[in-house]
Structures are given as structure tokens and as C-alpha cells.
Model the fold of this input.
Amino acid sequence: MTLFNIEILAIGNELCYGKVADTNSFWLADQLTRAGGLVTKITCIRDSEEQICQNLREIIEREVDFLVITGGLGPTNDDKTLDSISKLTKLETIPDENALEKISKRKNIPKSELPKNYVKMARKLSGAETIDNPVGICPTIILQLKKTTLIAMPGPPNEVQAIFKTHISKIIEKSSGSKSQSTRVIVKMAESEIAQIIEVIEKNIDNVYLKPLVSQYDPEKGIPIEIISFEKNDLECWKLIEESKILLQEAVEEKGSKLITSNK
Done:
């Protein structure tokens, strides 16, 4: 099965200083995988116009199918994502009237009297598609750059999740033509013991990935194993998972151990 490639680009000085955890990329990687995409790279960079433009050029050259960007669309001086995309593409930044109207009503300030920082949040790119923000102000920008569809979202996690669930997931699912599902089991064995079993299963069943989660190993309970499958629909995904679980159970029982289904 051929999966389309997705990269995630997280932008923010606060992320690179280690003061804020990049929970967006973790959450998006899971959601994009469930939608049938293959996240090939996650990059975190500073609010630097030079870094943003350089990374955009490199990603476009890699011809990924989708680039999902979070952060840098806010009202402060270090929010430079939109201006960087504008510089790279030569597309002008223009006011988004819907976003301006939303701010005006929320703050009870006439649009003509809105402070500059509010106006900065309510911008879009000329010629680009925009998606309304269900819980915030900054619109999401969607732009086709050669073979890559760029999706730029604001950084607050509640906004990222609302925008993705409301709009972006449908775009990804429509493009992918495939789905992914996952489950977790626990085996009371060490990683070195389970590695060869996993290798055999992955050779015998296409489109499955099994990963021992070493950081969650418990000497009393065992090691969790994540099983991820990719297929044309959810039903076929679950069939692959069940096939994998059967082979895994048979193999670990031969070693004198047992498999426990986990509610992750």
C-alpha cells in the first residue's frame, strides 16, 4: 500500500527554549496517521523568517503531499509565519474580513478602530484558501505549492484540535483513500526476546507495524506493544490487527509467556 507523505512543522521560540511542550505535533501525528497518512518528519524551529523560509523550501523540494504548520500566526512581534510564507510565495498579506468582524464583535470595538495587534491576527494570503477558526481568531491558510499542500494553523492546542476535527481531517481523509487503526497489548517478555517475534510477524503480514514501548516497561506486568495497521477502510485495518495479535499470541505462548490486551 502506498501512503501519502505528510510533514509537520512546529514554529515557536517557546518550543525551542523548552518552556512549552510541543503537544500539537504529538496529537497531529496520531490524527494524521489515523486518517491514513504517513508522517515522515516532524520539525520544530524558532520564529525566524530565515529558518521558516529555508524549511519551507526544503520541504517543497522533497515533494511531500501535505505540510501541516502550527504556530506563528498570532499578534506578537515574534509571530512571523504568515509573513514568511508571503515572502517565499510573493503572495500579499491582506485583511480577512470574517476574522476582523469576529474580533470586532468579541471586543466591542469598531473594525476601523481595532489595534494593530488584532489586525495582525486577522490576515490571510491573497489567492490562498482560508478556513474559519471555530474557537479563535486566526484563520487557517491552505495553499498549493507545487506538489505540496500547505496547511498553516495557529498554535494554541485547543484551536489546532478544533480546526483539525472540523475541517482538516476531512481534507486528509478525502485525499488519502486509506485508514489506520491501532491497539496496544502487553507481553511479559523483555524487548530483546520479543524483537525476533515482531520481525517475523511484520514479514508475514503487510501494512502492520509493531513497536515495543520500552519506556513503559513494567517488570511485574511486562512490555506494551503498539500494533498499527494501514488499509483501505477501518474494517480491513482491524482484520490486520487481529491477525497480528493471533500470531503474536501463538509466538509468546510458545516462549512460555502470555499476551494481555490493554485499554490504552
Notes: DSSP finds nine helices and twelve strands in the chain.
